[in-house]
Amino acid sequence: MALIHTHDSKLIARSAALVYEAVLRFEDYPLWWPRKFHPRVQPSQRPAKGRAWVGDRIAFTPFPGIRTGWEITAIIPVEQIRLRYFQGYHTGYGVWRFEPEQQATRTSFEMRIMPKHPLCGLVYRLARVPRRHSAHMQEIFTCLEGYLQR
Q: In order of start, what are the domains of the chain with their CATH numbers?
């Protein structure tokens, strides 16, 4: 089966710490993620509130009828948030990265997924999933930037 790999980024005019904290707060995603993705937070069994931790999950619908979700697998404060895809027609991982650049942050998301079934791989290819995913990520980066400017 074919690996689907994307890597998208945007320079956001905010500090790496501020961008990182916004991305790490899953419960705030409904405030800034495009509503069409229907983000639904699934916190892990932890007593603390206010930010996500290893084991926390967020589910969303990137395409009508296609549900997927991330589970945090590792956090490197103010540098990376590593995720695994836990739901949907594919498996794999994603990585948020936050790299300071002068007075801004190069914010990026890399995705590597494998369809669970060859038919899904064909559908993903025909639907041009990498290109659509990149367009979605640019929309998410723009929404994040707008949220941070408020």
A: 4-149 (3.30.530.20)
7 against 130, higher pLDDT: 7
CA distance 131 to 136: 9
Q: Which pTM does this prediction carry?
A: 0.88
- Number of neighbouring beta carbons within 10 Å of residue 147: 15
Distance CA 114, CA 91 (A): 5
For residues 67-82, average pLDDT: 93
Cβ 6 vs Cβ 138: under 8 Å: no
Q: Which helix (H) or strand (E) holds 126?
A: helix 118-126
- Whether residue 144 is predicted with pLDDT greater than 90 in this model: the reply is yes
Contact 72, 52 (CB under 8 A): yes
Longest dimension (CA), the chain: 46
